[in-house]
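Page header: ASSEMBLY MODEL / two components / 685 residues total.
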Amino acid sequence: MPITKPVNESVQAVSLSELRWQCRRGMLELDILLNTFLDRKYSQLNETQHQVFTRLLQYPDQTLFDLLMANMPSTNPDIAEMVQQVRMAMVNKNRVS
Amino acid sequence: MSQIQRRQFDTLIIGAGGGGLRASLQLAAADVNVAVVSKVFPIRSHTVAAQGGVNAALANVINDNWHWHMFDTVKGGDYLGDQDAIEYMCRAAPKAVYELEHFGVPFSRLDNGKIYQRAFGGQSLNFGDGQAIRTCAAADRTGHAILHSLYQQNIRAKTHFFDEYFAVDLLKDNEGHVLGALVFNIQNGEVLVIEAKTTLLATGGAGQQFKNTTNALINTGDGMGMALRAGIPLQDLEFFQFHPTGVAGHGMLITEAARGEGGYLLNSENERFMERYAPSVKDLACRDVVSRAIMTELREGRGCGPNKDYVLLRLDHLGEEVVQKRLPGIRQTSITFLGIDPAKAPIPVSPTAHYMMGGIPTNRFGQVVVPVKDTPEEPVAGLYAAGECACVSVHGGNRLGGNSLLDILVFGRAAGNHIIEYLQENRYHRPMDESSVEAAMQRLQRWENPNPDGEPVAALRAELKQLMESHCSVYRTDEVLREGVEKIEQLAERIKNARIDDHSSVFNTAKVEALELENLMYVALATMHSAYARKESRGAHSRIDYPDRDDKNWMRHTLYSLEHGLDYKPVRTKPITVDSFPPKARTY
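Prediction written out in full:
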């Protein structure tokens, strides 16, 4: 069974600064992808999407890496959609810069 | 100080990567009351990023011997490694791997059921005769598998975890005994004094001091900063391993496989410049040669892009099918972070800081050791270190692939065992030194007061990283480093007056980043001074103006402390039971 960090179930209570700390991971690739998304896209999401992003952050680093580097698709449609959004934030940043 | 909450443990471990968790498991399994403080949730430690494997002479594929492993490690480290520690590590390696197997690490298997082993660079049979096959791997996620297994075993052994707590400083008494640390809870800002009979630093490396690095954001040298402030020198910090091809502007690795498959480097004049630097092997030259060649091109104005700060790695001539089939990871990295498909266009790359061989000086029992009068290695009572933040020194001037996971496992365990012995002879907590608590609190509270005249932390951090990149990465000369020393000293003064604008208690990441910046600054000072002083080329420390190794004058360890500046101590050339390997030219 994968180990995940216990997360406050009340997503509304998760502040942006707490989320930023949850985006600190063991791999540079994850740091960059997650923080880019947080900076550029997170504020435009609705409440349900906020919850999905918080759920995504509970995944272990290696699983997150495989999902976000497109090595492995998620079978959960909400997570799969969020993974796409995180990747797109990076793509859009590249376009601008 | 009476209002600060206090907890007592036999042992405090700061850092929850592989080194910290291996030590804590050894202790918890022996019924030691052990606490682990980690600024992130433990399984988000940087050990998770180690993909390659663990070296151990198991001889599962072809014949092997720990003594050959020892020779390779001594030679790979360019004869700066301590040979007693290297012998200990290579002898202990098979046991360390079998222990992991019992802890539940799912190693890849051979057809006969034995642990799979793969070939890595720098490994030989029979003291340099042919390629050894020595690296045990759990697919390409060995670090992840080790970290998760160790964490689960620690939970079972009832290790006490303080997740998302930041360690501010070590606490010490006047006699030099380390008594624990002052930490605070990142979630709510609450300060806690953890009193411990023994403290182990296992906080990992400090790649974040460089602009381009493979290291995660958490790798800010916190334990090394704490050690320096506690009066402990750092050892051999000038030895920092760089990888030649990191994704420009981001730092993550593009592995050698890209050039192995036929990829080559181009400068802004569309020239295959490696033909000038290594006419026979060209782009397949050693990492340090390729890194220096790239940096020379950049410094001489032949870099690409608006800032001329990268070169191009061309793969598109290989064809889309080859790139997709043989280099899928590299292709995905390039598409994700640069929006460039390497099957169609070249990848911007530049050298990237990867691993620090230096750190807090320890002996092979994990005890932190410092010079006292005429003794170069006197243990600091109650203080231990393990992993990348420590310098045992098994990697010497240059680490071999597959030896970093081995280092954290062997010396995490050794430190745990020595702590158990120490606790049997030191059964009671020493009285807390309140002036030490006061000093740590002052360092913390300095960030709670508005300082409108100071410069922002983020800007100073960016400047520090650029400065280290420009003056202390792979292109090192007297002039470049002298200028670097002057600039880093000036920047250090400005960082002392840095400001943050968030003074809240809850998840104040600005305060954490400010404390991390201070730690990076101290490590950067030590790195720059140590590199400037070492007038030779050895291992990863390569001086353009001193291209040769100089065993007569420089076969010695550097020590840098805030109080005394630079000092040196001899290399331990005598192994435990076998003959020494005398220095020879390091050719492959």
